[in-house]
Write a structure and sequence with these properties.
By secondary structure, the protein is of the alpha/beta class. About 30% of the residues lie in helices and about 20% in strands.
Length: about 325
Amino acid sequence: MKITDVEAFHINPRLASRNVGQKPRFVKIDTQTVYKITTDNGIVGYGDCRGHYNLADEIRKKLIDHNPFEFVNGSWSSGLMGALYDVMGKHVELPAYRLMGQKLRDRVPVAAWTRPASPEDLAAEVIRAANEGYSIFKMHTCSYYDVLEQHRAVEEVAPPGFLMHYDFNHNRTMASVTRLIGQLEKSPFVGFIEDPMRWQDLEGWRTLRQKTNLPIVMHVPQLGGGPEIIHGCADLYMVGESGLDTALQRGYACGQANLSTVIQMTGGTLCKALAMHLGAVLPNVSHSINLDDQYEEDVTGVRIEVAEGSSPVPEEPGLGVSVDESEFERI
């Protein structure tokens, strides 16, 4: 089997109706790139990711006339890697996770997500997410909304067991972080604090981790992850946005260190499917953060089920979700 063509399509899927009239909170939220890989034996694979990206000529040259299995665990975007795994899985009639490692779970915990929101908007989103089956919700904090005021609004509407994942955007000092976390850790609805301090301050991360009982998440380790793990900077490390090779390496390293991972891969249903396959094999996965719930339409015509805080790992060959060609063409 050899690749005969690689294509990238820029689409602008309609946002969820609740977002109509609101300024989109995510950069490039209304844009996606869908990758299509065709092989000489008639197999077609698809993958997607958030944003409009051009397919570089050098990447096409590397892929065309080559066997897709030459690129297992590659470092390209989640959209392109998703299309490759879709092709490979369909060829051997196996779900994509079987090409990544040993399956450890049938379902992966998933989180809804929003960028900075007023206390009122955040409370409404938490209600929406809980009604859709989520039990974890990520939100980026900012300088123009009070985190404690936002969280008080959450406490008024969140059901028992619901957990907030607050992203502090790695821009605070130890003094401000200590004060905020000292208040937030009193609440049963706070589950995770992401990037509480500047990435370079490894000693600050380690000290903060010793001071709080809230799990600390590090998004992009500036030294690659190994030194941060050895230094004891965080309880969880984020994977997924820097290629499958890095995700698997860091995920297994965290497993060996008895730490957890958070998978963050953003796009439509195809992208979430790839995240579910990755979540099936990585040890100690806490949850996966995706954006499929932000769209009214998708090239597959479906969304992966969310129930009791988790989504299933697809079992059909490849990514396990099919592109609706007519819907793809319409979008």
